[in-house]
């Protein structure tokens, strides 16, 4: 049984139920029923088989956001291939790098009418290919590369079904739900698009990324769930239309840390809280802040019923103290864990014991049992024995009215170990903030040792396709 089998079953049981509702720029909309969706992806699967696709092959997909991406992705899965999404905005060089790193056997391109092209990029070692095939691979996605070079995460059919079931214990998606979708499909697909279709819901695709596009469709189509990033919720909070999103029962914030200002502005505008959720490509959706969203909007919340979460101290022991000054690395155990990293080939079973999956994220747990994110382990600065996180300093700098975005990093120091330095993208390039002003601003809000010792003005900062800062640098 695969997720495709469940979608086929919806097509038989509820053929006229809407699977997709798609707005266009002219103010119209198109409805794709489950029967039509199944017909579309079965046609693509049959075409792939005619082109010589073999079960288990890695098949790249380059497509824009929308109906075509969904139908082609499902067609690849229906042909029993391993789908490898490649961002459509990727440069030709980046696309080629993805193809080589994944050792694609073929690629499907929207620009060619979703034609399939066979590739000759070689294969992994024979024993690796045999182990990979035994996993029944369905999905291969590269990590975002925010703090390290990206790695290919392999997820098999069985793992997908297990993590969808675990996530839906909290999301409670049913055929009555209508989910507004705005995140990039090449980066968010399994515990989202596949989950909604697995449980027979309707996906709403706005005509564009602006707040007006989103709220117009959400109101007209009676949306029940929003699943978006803090960036999108900032847009929605500033919407000045009459839309109230009255039917929305759940607004999930993911893909980046939720700021208190964003949560407060959204709550004022729509009279409902934002629920922060932690998605991890290797794990699924293990943490959600449903219980404390109104009172502690920036918290990660608690583990979903199917998952176990614990905080690992530097000594390998559990951290139990409930204090922002006592943090531990978030470690996770539960169903639907990834099956392997592709290259170098690393089966997940060799990594998940004894600690579970070590996320690299550091957090603390409050007296109510809610987790709060402190920062990435790789983003921790150790200065004269005092430890703090780049994210904490960036949050202060980003609130400065003359700063559009900042990136803080550690610089080695002969006597202090490490010192914080900051790169600043000014809100007005012609009038960048002065170092003295930034230092004074930070001094009013941070301990003295956390104030950056140097500020550099830059035109822009590198971001991943999902809007996260890229922190690793080539040596």
How would you characterize this protein structure?
About 30% of the residues lie in helices and about 30% in strands. The chain is of the alpha/beta class. The strands form six sheets. A nine-stranded mixed β-sheet has the order 2-1-10-9-11-12-13-14-15, with helices on both faces. Strands 4-3-5-6 form a four-stranded mixed β-sheet, with helices on one face. A hairpin with a 4-residue loop joins β18 and β19 (about 345). α1 (about 5-15) crosses α2 (about 35-50) and α2 (about 35-50) crosses α3 (about 65-80). The longest helix has 17 residues, at about 35-50. It is globular and about 65 Å long. The two termini are about 45 Å apart.
Main traits of this protein?
26 strands, 475 residues, alpha/beta, 4-stranded mixed β-sheet, 28% strand, 28% helix, single chain
Structural class: alpha/beta
Main sheet makeup: 9 strands, mixed
Low-confidence stretches: none
Shape, please?
A: globular
Count of discrete alpha- or pi-helical segments spanning 4 or more residues: 12
In round numbers, the mean pLDDT is: 92
Rg measurement, Å:
23 Å
Note the gap between the termini: 46 Å
The total beta strand count reads 26
> Order of strands across the biggest sheet?
2-1-10-9-11-12-13-14-15
Binned, the helix content reads 25-40%
Strand content: 25-35%
Write down the oligomeric state.
single chain
How would you summarize the topology of this molecule?
Layout (H helix, E strand, L loop, with lengths): L2 H11 L4 E6 L5 E5 H17 L7 E5 L4 H12 L3 E4 L6 H11 L3 E4 L5 E4 L7 H9 L2 E6 L9 E5 H15 L6 E4 L8 H9 L3 E4 L5 H10 L4 E4 L1 H8 L12 E4 L6 H11 L4 E6 L3 E5 L13 E2 L4 E5 L15 E6 L6 E2 L4 E2 L9 E9 L5 E6 L3 E4 L2 E4 H9 L4 E11 L3 E10 L8 H9 L10 E4 L18
Parallel strand pairs: 1-10, 3-4, 3-5, 9-10, 9-11, 11-12, 12-13, 25-26
Antiparallel strand pairs: 1-2, 5-6, 7-8, 8-18, 13-14, 14-15, 16-17, 17-20, 18-19, 20-21, 22-23, 24-25
Helix pairs in contact: 1-2, 1-7, 2-3, 6-7, 9-10
